[in-house]
Amino acid sequence: MKIGFFDSGLGGITVLSEALRRLPNESFVYMADTLHAPYGTKTPQEVRGYVKTLVQTILKEEVKALVIACNTATSIAVAELRREYSIPIIGMEPAVKPAVEMNRANGKRVLVLATSLTLKQSGYAALVSRVDDHGSVDSLPLPELVQYCEQLNFDRTELFEYFNRKLSSFNLDIYGTVVLGCTHYPFYKEILKELLPSHIQLIDGSQGTVRRLKQVLSERNLLASPVKAGQSQEGHVTFLCSSQDEAYVHKMERALEIYAEHEKIYL
Description:
- This protein is α/β, with parallel strands linked by helices.
- The protein has two domains: 2-92 and 206-263, Rossmann fold (3-Layer(aba) Sandwich), CATH 3.40.50; 96-204, Rossmann fold.
- Helix content is 45%, strand content 17%.
- The chain has eleven helices and nine strands.
- The strands form two sheets. A five-stranded parallel sheet has the order 4-3-1-2-9, with helices on both faces. Strands 6-5-7-8 form a four-stranded parallel sheet, sandwiched between helices.
- Helix 9 links the parallel strand 7 and strand 8.
- The chain starts with a strand and ends with a helix.
């Protein structure tokens, strides 16, 4: 059986790439909700409806676990999905807790980059309240970055100008960690590393999400067995999208290649 991933578009591929690296014996199905992307500009009620429909579709692929590879969708719909379905459902949240912990010793602040909708959710406010004892977390919505990613736009001049404009009001010297709180944003880690002061660390939720996925699969005896000599290697990914757009399927395949190259991960 496969592990299901879904997102509004290409963003969840950053999480899928981590899963391919850490779970090399598994096969995956990744579905993008191209009919309704981007989620970050929709109302919570709209996103909840889109997610429920998408889950019903992806479950037809006989998946043994499901990863909501989208911070916005997780914050809005994960609790309801877990009540409705018995398979493991792994969600995502901005990596605020590890970012705060990384800065405890140096007194630096944390800057969370995310979609407007994620930052408005009560779940995000509760997360920050729970882990940020000293009021050290700031946030910045970057909705346009999702569209850059969906266009596979990596034009350095354009993106440097965009980030400089968005960050111009922040004194970056006081920050120790920047959280990439949308799964689209890690596509731009290389550019951010060049632009931000060298002392700033970048962190996203992909590693923690996949660690949790692996733990849950192990606890439920759902991990795929290692490939034996002479058998074909697993690790296959099936890409689907709600619009059934073949061109977008090819774009997802290309996005995975691009991200793997950026991460120096050899799948």
